[in-house]
Amino acid sequence: MSALPLRRTASDLRLPAPPDAALLEKLARQFASTAEDLDRGGAFPHANFELLQSHGLIGLVAPREFGGGGATLQTACSVIAAVARGEPATALILTMTWLQHHALGRSDNRWPIALRERVARDAVERGALINALRVEPLLGSPARGGLPATVARRDGDTWRIDGHKLYTTGIEGLAWLAVWGRTDEPESRVGTFLVPRHAQGVSVVASWDHLGLRASGSHEVIFEDVSIPLANAVDLRAPGEWAPDAGSQTDIDAHATQQAWMVVLLGSLYDAVARAARDWLIGFLHQRAPSGLGAPLASLPRVQEHVGEIDALLHVNRVLLDETAAAVDSGHAPPAIDSGLLKYTVTNNAIRAVELALQLSGNHGLTRHNPLERHWRDVLCSRIHTPQNDAVLVAAGKRALKEANA
């Protein structure tokens, strides 16, 4: 079974155009209409991606030279925010694909051009999704250091891969797996092996039963003697060369740009979840009129104050996300430490905004008959994305203390 059954014919193919506001609003409403069912069942949102592909949106960020839209970060954020307001697991899977597509167009990309083009055109023509598979049972997040236990052995003109990956977001709908692993050479190299999702020896352990983003299908994947061509080892380096500050200034700047894309897209996603919670709350406060009050809750100054606090938190998010996206699009990505602080601020503001909504709505906000408790569960997932809060604050603190000492 392919990732998506929907294909676009040769006559249909053209550079994906940025969607207008009316289309984004339509998508948000349509995705919201099935979000509760997807959350309860945890099924992969196939219909959502078919709809996205019908509008040419899966290839929106793919490089223009390969038929994609080459969208800016600002455009990408507007789409992710609309999708996430409706169904955030769909937005997360799309975000992960777009991060890979953006990397395909970077000048420092080391993948063979034929594979870059194949992955991008697969997305444009048939909505093929891709994600990086990095986390392992013993390694944890590669951002914390350490060598992966996933091993590739050279066998003639192929690599044969064995390994075990966790939290493989979207695996049920992916077409391509960018697998983080190491070679079994005397001096191991570490990097990415491009594996077709349905290659022989790739199996899925359906273990994802999470608090939030339940439809993301972030199951485990086992690789057992999976064979790929030598050329599919798309970027192998000595372990030390993967350090964020390794290499030339061009490499460091490219890393900063990629991290900025990641944190701004993820920030837009979780900010959108908080805005969906805020919008539900506003409706509830106008409709809820306790008999002892004789007026809607919206008439109470205390309630108005807390709604104002929610709007203040989300206003800060909007300014930070918009300014950073504009800076990245103009070629001025912030340093990685500053991107980390952006992620920390935006996600914590989003969590606090939904928490305030729960306080104002009481039991009504916690019942599964209303979407607010789902928004709460989903927004809490923002904390687990790299870079995590402790790493962000330690890096920022070290920098501040070093600068003060200097």
From TrEMBL:
<feature type="domain" description="Acyl-CoA dehydrogenase/oxidase N-terminal">
    <location>
        <begin position="28"/>
        <end position="96"/>
    </location>
</feature>
<keyword id="KW-0285">Flavoprotein</keyword>
<dbReference type="InterPro" id="IPR009100">
    <property type="entry name" value="AcylCoA_DH/oxidase_NM_dom_sf"/>
</dbReference>
<dbReference type="InterPro" id="IPR036250">
    <property type="entry name" value="AcylCo_DH-like_C"/>
</dbReference>
<dbReference type="Pfam" id="PF00441">
    <property type="entry name" value="Acyl-CoA_dh_1"/>
</dbReference>
<feature type="domain" description="Acyl-CoA oxidase/dehydrogenase middle">
    <location>
        <begin position="136"/>
        <end position="226"/>
    </location>
</feature>
<feature type="domain" description="Acyl-CoA dehydrogenase/oxidase C-terminal">
    <location>
        <begin position="273"/>
        <end position="384"/>
    </location>
</feature>
<dbReference type="InterPro" id="IPR013786">
    <property type="entry name" value="AcylCoA_DH/ox_N"/>
</dbReference>
<dbReference type="InterPro" id="IPR046373">
    <property type="entry name" value="Acyl-CoA_Oxase/DH_mid-dom_sf"/>
</dbReference>
<comment type="similarity">
    <text>Belongs to the acyl-CoA dehydrogenase family.</text>
</comment>
<dbReference type="InterPro" id="IPR009075">
    <property type="entry name" value="AcylCo_DH/oxidase_C"/>
</dbReference>
<dbReference type="Pfam" id="PF02771">
    <property type="entry name" value="Acyl-CoA_dh_N"/>
</dbReference>
<keyword id="KW-0560">Oxidoreductase</keyword>
<dbReference type="GO" id="GO:0016491">
    <property type="term" value="F:oxidoreductase activity"/>
</dbReference>
<dbReference type="InterPro" id="IPR037069">
    <property type="entry name" value="AcylCoA_DH/ox_N_sf"/>
</dbReference>
<keyword id="KW-0274">FAD</keyword>
<dbReference type="Pfam" id="PF02770">
    <property type="entry name" value="Acyl-CoA_dh_M"/>
</dbReference>
<dbReference type="InterPro" id="IPR052547">
    <property type="entry name" value="Mito_Isobutyryl-CoADH"/>
</dbReference>
<protein>
    <submittedName>
        <fullName>Acyl-CoA dehydrogenase family protein</fullName>
        <ecNumber>1.-.-.-</ecNumber>
    </submittedName>
</protein>
<dbReference type="InterPro" id="IPR006091">
    <property type="entry name" value="Acyl-CoA_Oxase/DH_mid-dom"/>
</dbReference>
